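ESCALATION

Customer reports they have been waiting on this structure for their group meeting. Please prioritize. Original submission:
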Amino acid sequence: MAANSTSAFVGNPPNTERDYYIVRGMDRTYGASSADPADGFTYLAAAPSDYVHETKSVQVIIGLVIMMVTILIPTVARLVLRASNPAMEFGSDDWAIILAASVALLYSIVHILIIVQGGGGYHIWEVTYEQYNSFVYWANVATMLYYVAVSLIKVSITLFLRRIAHQAFLPWRIACDIFLASLALYVVYVMLSTSIYCKPVQAGWSLELSGQLEQPAKCIDEYRNAEALSIVHLIQGTILLCSPLIMLWKVRMSRSKKIRLYSFWIVGGLAVLGALLDFLLQNVSSDYTWSYTSIITWAAIDICFGMLTASLPVLDAFIEDVWRSTRRKISTGRHSRGDVHGDSQSNPPVAGPWTDKHAPISQENVVATCAHRSESQEHFVQAEDTIEMGNMSAQDNEVRSSMVYTTESSGKTPSR
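Update from on-call: job pushed to the front of the queue and completed.
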């Protein structure tokens, strides 16, 4: 076998020395150490007699670009809102989401490398041994990045919930701390189990190096390990999804705001669904380079909806402001059309900045003005058997007008 020949396609006898060792490494991976590498690796899918060339590489790359845009838009909007609104504090949950977005973007880039260098999106019989060796390497990297990314998203959401419950609801804070500790242990295990699962370590990252060893490497069962990682990820995601639903049940706020927040967590439910389908579709067929694209789809849904779930509650005040502004413009347009027809004569004068400065100011107006001052304060205030959320719009704050009016008149700032 010449060292400078073209690599053979998977399923055929090797053309090069590299092919020979890659096939030997593949045989050892499947527990067929006694097989002769010169015969090629024949345990994977073979081309049917009526096969016509097809590929999904372009569609996958387009999908990955859409994934990156979906990750960037809510993250950048969240950070811009934090930076532009002095009433909002840049906290640890924001740092966590920045790190999560960075890892998720890197995950997308790695999958593009799988397409370009590893033959992803092609049938396995159209992939060379050298391409498949690259496929295995980048697939290991992508697996690690995926579990780290979804864990960091959970960390950001948990830190956000902990910040809300700060100095108000001790059991929730303790629960958040315990959950954060479990996430930290999970990330450590992910890093170790996906990087040093073979002895020697390099055998787990390169089929060629694995085939060059005199004796087969000793490795943990990577499929069992992937199942364990997926199950823990599903359990953690379900717990995190249910926790805010229970918390919001005891929060006193307007019905519209509660519906919005519940809808945000429904988005999180889609992320959990993506993780579940990703787990169920791990072993689709022996045509790995072709069938793995369906796993990318559900993993992308998991990451994208997880990023949205982490950022939408922070963007809630902005979303509500936009909605109120739109309704106000529509209402103003209707009134303007009514003025043209003479309907404005029946309307009483409305107090505003252009009216008599000695006009009486009602307590409700003071409350609305004070409430508008800080739309992004995140805290809970315990009141009898309920917990009141401070991250409210002016509409929600008017419900507790007496408390706000008393606080403002006494010169004290509500606790965070």
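Sent to customer with the following note: The chain has 13 helices and five strands.
Escalation resolved.
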